[in-house]
Design goal:
By secondary structure, the chain is of the alpha/beta class. The protein is built from 4 helices and 7 strands. α1 packs across α2. Bound molecules: adenosine-5'-diphosphate and magnesium ion.
Amino acid sequence: METFQTKSPRGTIALGRRLASRLGRGDCVGLVGDLGAGKTVLVRGLAAGLGVGDDRLISSPTFVLVQEYPGSVPVYHIDLYRLADGAGELVDLGLAEMLADGVVLIEWADRAGEALPGNHWRIEIAITGRRTREFRLTPPSRDPSGALDRGGALP
Ligand code: ADP
Ligand code: MG
């Protein structure tokens, strides 16, 4: 597990940009944290780092369950907040197809149950002050690069 601290939304965007360099097609990031923790802010940074243009404002998908943004790979943003059955929804939304195609960023991932892929990245966000946040990152356990799932060779 890795830990990061930020002192402003701008710092969280920068963190997301940096972490995005470790992501590629087939990766899934599960974001966990209270309302206002900064999940959506981090998603903005991750998306920016994945080449999604600044002109595309990333807000929480309120009326649609998934938002797709074109970047260096397609970026899918899902928010399970309002969903009673997060796991069922993820399957219905076509999570497998999204992963075959791009990067999937899921807010309220703790509501996804067993539907998250086994190799997902988990980021827990804690509110530590008015402007400070702590991020605990757990990379995929089997293969941090995701290369196996993208058809890479074993070392
Ligand atoms: P969530 O998606 O987790 O509900 P948001 O990302 O929508 O939360 O909102 C986070 C809120 O916290 C924003 O209003 C943002 O301005 C504020 N904030 C304050 N400090 C930070 C920080 N260090 N990182 C991210 N957001 C912060
Ligand atoms: Mg949000």
